[in-house]
Task: structure prediction
Amino acid sequence: MIYLASDHGGFALKKKVNTLLHSLNQSVKDLGPYRLVDGDDYPDYVLPLAQAVAASGERGIISCRNGQGAAIAANKVPGIRAAVCWDVTCAISARTDDNSNILSLPADYLTDEVITEIVKAWLATPFSTDARHIRRINKITTYEQSEGK
Result:
């Protein structure tokens, strides 16, 4: 299952990603918005998506104009590792090294072709079993648990 969410700035990109995911035979759950509402707020959609990803162990794709605000909001949820990716190399690294479970896309800066390449690469790339990457993720998890988040 891939969860999707955006705000008004990422709404058109989210629709494109939804179509792409269906063409790749991925199960998709769109968490909104379901229609374009100028001026809506990304936390209203991104936080429920992050909670769903954390609870299910699935992955999510989010978008806003620069991808940063949506990622910042998602990363407030324990267990979430949202990464803003602007090219394939970044998407691969975010999965391999950081085990990102949410991909955040900057809608104002990506072409349709690049979006497709990023999403495909991010979905296809597994997390590394390299000890240093596992150690780093474990430190983040320990911190989240010790802070009561």
Summary: The longest strand covers residues 59-64. The two ends are 25 Å apart (CA to CA).
